[in-house]
Each structure stands twice: as structure tokens, then as C-alpha cells.
Amino acid sequence: MLQLCSVDLYKMKLINIFCVVLAAGLAAHAGAQMMPWPYNTVCAQQPAIYSVVPQVTERPNNTYCFKIAVNIPPNCAGTCCSADLYKFELNVDPSCKVAGAKLSSTLNGKPTPTQPSLDKAPNEPAGVILRIPNLGLKMSNADGAEICVSLGPNAAGKGCLSLEQLCKLPAGGAPGTCETALYDSKFKCCAIGQPSQPTPIKPPINCTCEYMAGTTPFTVGSGAATATPTTTGTTVYCLPITTTSTFDAAAPGIQTYAHGAATSPSLQGGCGPVDVLHKIELYANQAMSSAVKSLRLVTGSTSKTISASWGGANSNVLKFTPINWTRAQAANSKVCVELKNPAKLSDFCIEDRCYLFLFNENKACCPMYTVPV
Known about the structure:
Largest sheet: 7 strands, antiparallel
Number of strands: 29
Number of domains: 2
CATH class of the largest domain: Mainly Beta
Helix content: under 10%
Radius of gyration: 22 Å
């Protein structure tokens, strides 16, 4: 029987970004062909003097910071070698364009002159771009500059709060992988950097399943976990589950892990258009197991209470099983854990987010997602 085992996520504070794109100028013209990220940009791609450091620093309150580096290539000549840095862009998952969701940005700790916007991408109907213009950076002050983006839900609790939710996942990218673009103010320079190889999250030990996000129709919903106090000295914390029609079972770079060692990318026959969500496993602090009163499965108006089940001694894996939801049942559903006060979900999930693994029926596919707490 496959199960998730101990995984060292305590020190995970940096999330890798996939592609650092230095771009300047967004020249849209009639008849332009659809292009990959950064979408319909026509300008000089070399040389590039600015880049984004290939790791994102996570800060409290759903804040993610991107650091700029300046590196002038040898014998650099031409306009791009003296370009300024005017605008930062991020490739965003379309589901994050939610009315009223909070979005703000800072540059070196101070609010940016123009706050970020989520705009429809040119020549890409499904594309959404987060844009922060008017940065006012130059070679003299851009090196080490830090651009931070803070995320928050709308009044209804909807919105993307983590990089895993916010960034449109590139083919072969690990959860939390992002694509960025940097533009100058003269619309002439467009140097595109090579993708950096993301450092994969340490996989579960003694397990064999594919945990790449976006490989089945089942996923987590937008927004953070909810907390509902009861009258019996407990609090019910619920994590949103839903479905999507955009998934890629054959995305390159899917990793299969067996007994702690990475094997060659393969599919094990488990990912794809599966119809049943068999179970969910939550990475949690097993030392707090006595604080768990019950687990709940909520779909539509139906709520089912089940007993807590752990993966074994010191596994730190809490199982919601059996679930066996169809796609229709899983759409806009929830899995909940009832904790005895004063225990909090932020302590139970170890960090400021909960890690969920969504298993198909043959347990060969277990895409991993996170939900902010």
C-alpha cells in the first residue's frame, strides 16, 4: 500500500522561479502571431543586463519577494547595455483574476509608485499578467533591489494566496515555479533568459507516486483555509478542494519517486483524466495528534465525519480516507480537520500553509498542492 511518509518541509522558505526573462518593450501589432511567455513581445533579445535571482523569498502575510541582479555582459554595446528597468511582469494563472482580491507591491520596502494590476495577455486568450510599472530603476541602483508582491482574498474569501496558486505553471515546472519579465521604458530591449532548473521539493520517502501539480482534474480551490469555532471547545478548519478542466498528464518533467530516489520521468498509468479522488493526505505535525477530534468531508450540503488515520509512527501524514469523490462531488468541496482549542491549524500544518497530496484510485498519482492557513 502506498503512503506518504516523512518529508522535510520545515525549512522550505524559498520557492524557485522557472524562467527569468529580461524584456523591454511590448510591441503589439495587427496580425501578430501568438507567442509563448512573455506573450507577443517583439524586441531585441540580447544583450541582457538585468535578471531576477532564481529564488523567491517568502515573507509573512502571503508576501513573495523577487530580487534583481545586474550583470553587464563582456563587450556589451548598444541601447540595451544602458537600458533602465521600468516594469516587472509575472505570468499568472487565470483563476487568480478574482474581482476584489487584494494585491499590493513594494520596492525595497516602500510601496511602488504604481500598484500592481492583473491584465489580460495580448494574443493569449487564457493568459493573465501581473504588471508593476514605473519602477524607476537603473544600473546604478537596480542590483539587489527587491520587488515584493502581497496577496490577499476578497470579501468572500476568494483569491490566490500562494505562489503555487498565483503562478501559471510552465510545462515541466515544479509547484511554485514562476515566469517573470523585466521591461525598459524605451520599448527596445527584450533579452530572454534561459530557464533555471528548479530545486524539487524533497519527495516522500518509501513511496512511489507522481506528485507534480496539474496532472489530474482534482486540485485545491483558491483562497486560504477557513476556521469555524464550535460550541464544544473546538475549531473546524476547512481546506478548499475543487476540479479543473486544464490539466496535463503528459507534462514533461513529471517526477516519480520510489524509496527516496528519483527515477526517470514516467507516468505509471496513474495521472490524466481520472474520475475519482480516492484519498487526500495532509502533511501535519503528528505530535499534535491528540488535538484532532475528527475529520470531515464536505461536498455540496453533505458533511461526513470520519476518524483520523495516520500513516504510521512519526510519519507526519494524516489521511482523509476513503473519499472516493467523483469530479462532480469534488467540485467546490472541502476537507476539514476539527482541532481541540487552543490548537491552531498554523501549528498543525507546521508552516504557514498546509501541504496536500491528492491520490487517484491506483495511488500512482498524488499531485501536491498547498493551501495558506
